[in-house]
Design a protein that fits this description.
Elements lengths: L1 H25 L4 H15 L5 H13 L4 H40 L9 H25 L3 H16 L3 H19 L16 H25 L2 H14 L5 H12 L7 H12 L8 H41 L2 H30 L3 H15 L5 H15 L3
Helix pairs in contact: 1-4, 2-4, 2-5, 3-4, 3-12, 3-13, 4-12, 5-13, 5-14, 5-15, 6-7, 6-13, 7-13, 8-9, 8-12, 9-10, 9-12, 11-12, 14-15
């Protein structure tokens, strides 16, 4: 019996690794696009979670600092295969871009790929994927006029006031509105997701997160160690950033360029390389670490910048499931879910649409890719390949 359980667990972990690695190899377009890819693969195709649970997990990731898409991927992995499933899911989704960026740092720093046609095609793929995700999520997150109004309010505010603080602010406002609107008639069907994590383990993760955040700067001063200083810089950047990878870039530049750890030119070259690879933008740390200390530095920096996100999502999941089914809080969660849709639509316009659809030919390619995904129901990896080919062909027109 125990052998059969171990065999089933191993098979489940292999499945998580296979699916997450495929997503790590094909998910271009930034964190909002990644949520679209996750929704398509995990929710629509494999049904590993229901729509409401996925929406709640996305809402939790929006509340927490760090890379939202990576935290959602970890959460799905935890639900499917426990803590090991979360680790495997993270490795599969992150490792391809980490390897690619370390290679960029070691071998390809002199090649300019940021303006290649196939990269522009991949940006257009993100337009199709996110549009599809928004259509699917809108039906579940905003079924009534009140929640549609919340989403519209969030959309307008985040378009006019684009910052990480605006996202956190409108989520809190939406939670307050949802609490008062739905505190008496919040949906009565409880939706439990059993995350196989003990609350004691989660409390340890949260304690470790805050402990490292406050202790690392002290250790840096006391020891004077280069590696402790490096770990502290990446850990702090990963701990204090709301809004995804684009927001972490100025923090990293401030940490490493003025100190002379790497040049402005090397930093910008790495940023261009990061746009060329799939997966989370936080893997930019792998490039920076590799420039400073070879491949070992790349892996070290990757662990340091992602560790806060890992500790936070593992620490919050069991308590989040308990809170979101509390009648006093459920109305607030309904408001937050509507706000998440507004944020998704705002991010769909900028930066995804504004950086991808530059002329009528781009819109035509986006329409073709969207139709292939939505109406012909082709796998996302085919859409990615066709987008890259289409982008290259557009440069010849």
């Amino acid at each position: 019996m125990k052998a059969n359980h171990s065999k089933t667990t191993f098979k489940s972990l292999l499945e998580i690794l296979f699916v997450s690695t495929r997503l790590g190899l094909t998910s271009f377009g930034g964190p909002i696009a990644h949520l679209g890819y996750f929704h398509e693969e995990y929710i629509r195709r494999r049904k590993w979670m229901d729509e409401k649970s996925y929406a709640d997990l996305v809402a939790l990731a929006q509340f927490l600092p760090g890379p939202a898409s990576s935290q959602v991927g970890i959460g799905i992995g935890v639900m499917r295969g426990g803590v090991l499933g979360g680790i495997v899911s993270f490795i599969g989704f992150t490792l391809p871009s980490v390897i690619a960026l370390i290679l960029f740092a070691l071998l390809l720093q002199n090649f300019d790929v940021a303006d290649a046609g196939w990269i522009h095609g991949l940006k257009i793929v993100a337009v199709a994927v996110v549009a599809h995700a928004i259509m699917g999520m809108a039906k579940n997150l905003t079924p009534d006029l009140s929640r549609k109004a919340i989403a519209l309010f969030v959309l307008v505010v985040t378009l006019f006031w684009q910052s990480a603080f605006s996202q956190v602010g409108v989520i809190l406002i939406a939670a307050l509105i949802g609490y008062f609107l739905y505190k008496n008639n919040a949906e009565t069907d409880e939706n439990h997701v059993q995350f196989p994590i003990a609350k004691r383990f989660s409390a340890i993760c949260l304690g470790l997160f805050f402990g490292l955040l406050f202790l690392l700067p002290l250790l840096r001063e006391v020891t004077g160690s280069y590696w402790v200083a490096m770990f502290d810089s990446f850990y702090r950047a990963g701990s204090l950033v709301f809004g995804g990878g684009h927001v972490v870039l100025p923090l990293l530049e401030q940490e490493f360029v003025p100190t002379g750890w790497l040049t402005e030119e090397a930093f910008l070259a790495g940023y261009g390389a990061t746009q060329a690879v799939p997966g989370p933008l936080f893997t930019f740390a792998a490039y920076l670490g590799a420039v400073m200390n070879g491949w070992q530095g790349g892996l070290f920096a990757t662990v340091a910048i992602f560790l806060p996100a890992f500790l936070l999502i593992l620490g919050a999941l069991p308590f989040w499931d308990m809170l979101r089914n509390n009648r006093k809080i459920k109305g607030a969660v309904m408001g937050v879910n509507a706000a998440v849709l507004g944020i998704l639509i705002s991010a769909f316009y900028t930066p995804i649409w504004t950086s991808s659809i530059l002329e009528p030919a781009d819109f035509a390619l986006a329409a073709v890719l969207f139709s292939m995904l939505v109406y012909w129901k082709l796998p996302p990896w085919i859409i990615v390949v066709c987008g890259a080919i289409g982008g290259s062909l557009l440069t010849l027109l």
